[in-house]
Design goal:
By secondary structure, the chain is mostly helical. It folds into 2 domains: 94 residues, Rna Polymerase Sigma Factor, Chain: A (Orthogonal Bundle), CATH 1.10.1740.10; 72 residues, Orthogonal Bundle (Arc Repressor Mutant, subunit A). The protein is globular.
Length: 197
């Protein structure tokens, strides 16, 4: 089935995604994932955040495909616009966090130290969340993101059908996002000041 999808237009794939077709989403990711990552990286200037932007962007594609109107824009433009927005959102979200603690410190090493510490913490959280995924999902994600393998290369390497790899990666990314969102929510709850009234 996934081979048939390769011949469909981008717009047809978005229509299938609107009907909750995971293979169609994976096909769109194959087509635009690298371009999306390059776009996000130019905006956020950080590989981990660029990956987050791409992941969040494709999850937005999944959730809002029913609202895509082919007459307004090409599917590729729509997808890359979503990635661009996620990347800009991440930059806006990170700027206050990076600026607050070291505004009064000398600029030579303070910002770098804070950023490196934050990146190490974020990577550690991602690694912890990855450990909670089923083995096959974790393996596919680690090989793709840290090993640089395409989904087709993963299918060959793991001896699995391409559609299986695509579904596995999509499910893994969805679960990973939920785990990280849960943790972020718990941290925000912990940070919330308690009322003294």
């Amino acid at each position: 089935m996934s081979r048939g999808l390769a011949h469909l237009s981008d717009e047809a794939l978005v229509a299938l995604v609107a009907r909750a077709d995971e293979d169609a989403l994976a096909e769109l990711y194959d087509r635009f994932g690298r371009v999306a990552y390059g776009l996000a990286l130019r905006i956020v200037r950080d590989p981990a955040l660029a990956e987050d932007a791409v992941q969040e962007g494709f999850l937005t594609v999944w959730r809002s495909a029913t609202r895509f109107v082919a007459e307004r824009a090409k599917a590729s433009t729509w997808i890359l616009t979503l990635i661009h927005r996620r990347a800009v959102d991440l930059v806006r979200r990170e700027q206050p966090r990076r600026a607050e603690p070291f505004d009064e410190a000398p600029r030579d090493s303070g910002d770098d130290t804070e950023e490196q510490a934050w990146l190490r913490l974020r990577r550690a959280k991602v690694q912890e969340a990855l450990k909670r995924l089923p083995d096959k999902q974790r393996e596919a994600l680690e090989l793709a993101y840290f090993g640089g393998f395409t989904q087709s290369e993963l299918a060959d390497r793991l001896g699995e059908p391409l559609g299986t790899i695509k579904s596995r990666m999509f499910s893994g990314l969805s679960s990973l996002r939920e785990l990280l969102a849960e943790e972020e929510y718990e941290e925000e709850e912990w940070k919330e000041p308690r009322s003294t009234s």
